[in-house]
Amino acid sequence: MTTSTAPVGALLREWRERRRLSQLELSNRTAVSTRHLSWIETGRSRPTAQMILRLADDLEVPLRERNAMLLAAGFAPAYPQHGLDDPELADVRDALRAVLAAHLPHPALLLDRHWDLVEANAAATALLDGCAPHLLVAPVNVLRVSLHPDGLAPRIANLPQWRAHLLGQVRRRAERTGDPALGALLDELTGYGGGTAEEPGPGAVVVPLRLRTADGELALFSLAAHVTTAADVTVEELVVETFHPADAATAAALRRLGTG
């Protein structure tokens, strides 16, 4: 659970400013008067739990941070946070694992909010051959594995382009969530270097990961999915990232790797 010593009004103002909304704009969206919003933000008025959740929902505040707001105001958290192996998450867990298994022979990952690996299918783990053991000690961060000089980076044929894509993802999530751990991760990944990105080639429709393997160069593009109806902190923060062949040669190579 994220904790904060800031009062709830300051937290709400921080999220409003992060979403680049004025008090008037938020007032129009939520039907809460600007005067009342101002009093909440300055601490002159103590919001109810319902008001906090109403504003947080419109500001698209993550469930983890909504709980932190409630705690800052003296209320109990509204959203549970179970472990993935807890009985309460059995149906979600089974569904996510079924997605990973069904995606074979193509790689698929289950990640948390910091891109730490939760689970992966066999096709994904097979691509990690040659990475330094210290990068594969849990919790395994897939971005660190991708861009570290002892990881996949030497085998990524279009490293500058793929690096720019990954750094952009981290930067946008850090800005959207305000998570300081993501800011630290971005600084770390940037420090690895890797060149300046080039524009995608003429006619390109995706930015591929071009990975050199013993079976030849694989060209992969990724899709990300999450549980859109999550009411649990853990479930909301899980992301399934699936990789798909960007050309026929890669599709054939992945089929060969799968049968092997």
TrEMBL record:
InterPro entries in alphabetical order: Cro/C1-type_HTH, Lambda_DNA-bd_dom_sf, MLTR_LBD
Domain HTH cro/C1-type: 12-66
Entries under SUPFAM superfamilies matching the protein: lambda repressor-like DNA-binding domains
Gene3D superfamilies: 3.30.450.180, lambda repressor-like DNA-binding domains (1.10.260.40)
Pfam families from the UniProt entry: HTH_31 (PF13560), MLTR_LBD (PF17765)
Signal peptide: none
UniProt protein name: Helix-turn-helix domain-containing protein
UniProt organism field: Pseudonocardia benzenivorans
